[in-house]
Structure formats: structure tokens, C-alpha cells
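Hey, resending since the last one bounced:
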Amino acid sequence: MLKIFISMEWGYFWYKVSAPYIENPLLAYSLFFLLFISVSFFYYLYLAKNRKIDNIYIRKIPALNSIDEAIGRSTEMGKPILYIPGIMDIDNIQTLASLSILSYVSYKCAEYETDFIMPVSRSVVMTVAQEVVKESYLRAGRSDLYRNDMVFYLTDDQFGYAAGVDGIISREKPGAIFLIGAFYAESLILAETGFSAGAIQIAGTAMITQLPFFIAACDYVLIGEELFAASAYLSKDILDKITLKNQDITKALVMVSVAIGATINTIYSIYPNIANIPFINLLHKIFQGLLIK
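The C-alpha cells again:
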């Protein structure tokens, strides 16, 4: 009797657990992708901890490879570096991505003893950026070169900020300008002024409407997700690269699943009689939840 009771309890338990996934296939897909992401991440983590992999291949991104070249050219010419982190506040993901690149750029400026200028349009961004730059100079062993006025506040006003930065470009004539973050209508104003000053310009944004202006006026551009991958690309930590690799694998799986689901559902709608084939009918039931009805 006890065994029957236990088996009934377990049967009821598994029914309650599986019922939501049976009623809503999208929950099952979410669980599958969650498990896949977790297994993939811990697999690469296991390989890294056991030193079975020392590095993970990431395709070359020209804009990031040219950072050292741009800073080196500015150093040879005796000109400063100008870094513009966009006009959005610290809660914007593009601003956070920009600050991760800022850490690398300011570190190289400290190594090469190159003057660094960073005007910002948000007070909180200024505070965080000052700490990022200060930490980079400490890591480079050149804390004596750091000054608090390297990162300074201009104004919250969009075009007031653009006018202020244009004035800095015209006066200081920087050798390299980094336009990385969230930009709006001021993007072309800044990029044109930098181009007229003869500076190497490296831009990066996820704002689709501003990318054409950066592509036209800048030497190198980080397009869309390249901006968010930059921190892992520039980092020497294998865990950062594992995270990026895992994201790419997951996105590839999602795209393949959507493509298969769309194909099967299209064939199913054009040729309804194909449902008589058990295998095709099973695939249709599996993938039909991937389409928005």
C-alpha cells in the first residue's frame, strides 16, 4: 500500500509540474532554451577551469583593433584623445557598454602618456567615468598623470552639449575621437566637426538611425551588437569570452529554430494533407508555438 501511495504522489507531482508546459508550449520552449544556455555555459566553464581551452576565437572587429593605432598616432603627434560617451544617462545600456570601452582607452592613454579629454552631458555618468578613468590610470601604474578635470560636465541640453564638444574639437585639435554610446540628431554635427579637424574617428552605437552618419563621417564604426561585444573582445578574462560565445550559440539556436518552425508551418498551411505523415505532424506541433499567431 505504501508503494502505491508513493507512486500516486509522484504521479500527481509530475502532473502538476508538467501541466503548465503542456497547456502553454511557449513555457516549454523557454525552459528548453534556459537549460541549453546553462549547460552550454557550464560546459565551457568546465573546459576553462581544467585549462582545456586557453582562448576562444572571436572574429576580428576592425574598429576595436584600430584603438591602439588611433591612440598611438595621437601620441606621436602630441595631440590629446577625445572620448564622447553619448548623451544618455547611466541607465542606458549603450552608455554602460561605452564605459567598458572607456576603461581600455583610458588605460592605453595612461600607458602612452597621452592627454585625455572626456566631456559628458550627465552628472551621474561623469561620476562613474571619473572612477573608471582613475582606476585605469592606477592599473597602468601612472596615477600621477590622472587629473579629476579629465572628465568634466558640460550640459544636459542636447545641442548645447554638441556645441560645447565642437568647441573643444576646434580648440584642442584631438588626434583621435571616440564617439561611443547613444546618439541622436547631434551625431552628424559631432562627426563632421571631428572629420574637419583631421582626427581618426572611431564610432559605435546601436541607434539604427544614426549609423549612416557615423559610417559616412568616421573611419571605423561599431555597428549594433559589436558595441556590446566590445568589453569581452578587449578583455583578457576567459570568462568574458565564454559569456559572449554562449550568447552567440544561443542566438544561432533561436534563429535556426525559428527558420525551421516557419518553414514547417508554411508547408503545413499550403499542403494540409501533409499532416497525415506522422513525422511532419509531430514537427508541426513542436514548432507551431514559435510563430506569433
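The CA atoms of residues 44 and 242 lie 6 Å apart.

Sorry for the duplicate.
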